[in-house]
Amino acid sequence: MVAVSWCLCGKECRYDGTAKPDVQAMALAKEGALCICPEVLGGLPVPREPAEIVGGDGYDVLDGRARVITVSGRDVTTEYIAGAEEAFRLCCESGVTCALLKANSPSCGSGCIYDGSFTGGKKQGDGVTAALLKRNGIAVTTE
Predict the structure, then answer these.
(1) What is the dihedral of CA 34, 39, 43, 49, to 10 degrees?
(2) pLDDT exceeding 90 applies to what percent of the chain?
(3) pLDDT tier at 42 (50, 70, 90 boundaries)?
(4) Are 109 and 103 within 8 A, CB to CB?
(5) Based on the number of CB atoms within 10 Å of its own CB, is 71 exposed (0-12), middle (13-18) or buried (19 or more)?
(6) Which H/E stretch holds residue 11?
(7) Mean pLDDT, residues 120-139
(8) pLDDT value for 125
(9) Confidence of residue 17 (pLDDT cuts 50, 70, 90)
(10) Distance (Å, rounded) from C-alpha 124 to C-alpha 128?
(11) What is the pLDDT of residue 15?
(12) pLDDT for 53-100, tens place per residue?
């Protein structure tokens, strides 16, 4: 079973209220893939302020060494961790072994995320959900 980011399936759930439809993700969704949006699962609204990881990456957030902060300075770490945990729970419940998640996201990014400066810069690392899934043996890739 595969999990895919809901925004890649055409659902308007990104921070700015848009979707980022991806042909492969939409095909997987039609085949029964588990569609998830960790930010929404964590209780964040649509739309919402942009957020980035400050002080590390998703592994650091999970381990309490970094925070997820919005552009106005609001700490949304708790919501990001809650969303990652709920996404992981749903993946376990559904037998997910791999996930296709949204690139660069502070939640779903795999291998590369925004750098925490809100300038569009990027750095190596994983988002919170991607890190939790990888840490637990679920393969993660981006579109």
Answers:
(1) -150
(2) 100
(3) very high
(4) yes
(5) exposed
(6) none
(7) 98
(8) 98
(9) very high
(10) 13
(11) 97
(12) 999 999 999 999 999 999 999 999 999 999 999 999 999 999 999 999
> Which amino acid makes up residue 41?
L
Q: Do 79 and 94 contact (CB within 8 A), yes or no?
A: no
Q: Identify whether the C-beta of residue 43 lies closer than 8 Å to the C-beta of residue 114.
A: no
- Supply angle C-alpha 64, 103, 39, rounded to 5: 55
The bridge status of strand 139-142 relative to strand 98-101 is parallel
Contact partners, residue 52, CB within 8 Å, separation at least 6: 68, 69, 71, 106, 113, 114, 115, 116, 117, 118
143 neighbors 83 (Cβ within 8 angstroms) = no
d(CA 48, CA 17): 8
135 contacts: CB under 8 Å, gap ≥ 6: 59, 62
Question: What residues form DSSP beta bridges with 124?
Answer: 112
Tokens 């949204």 belong to: 102
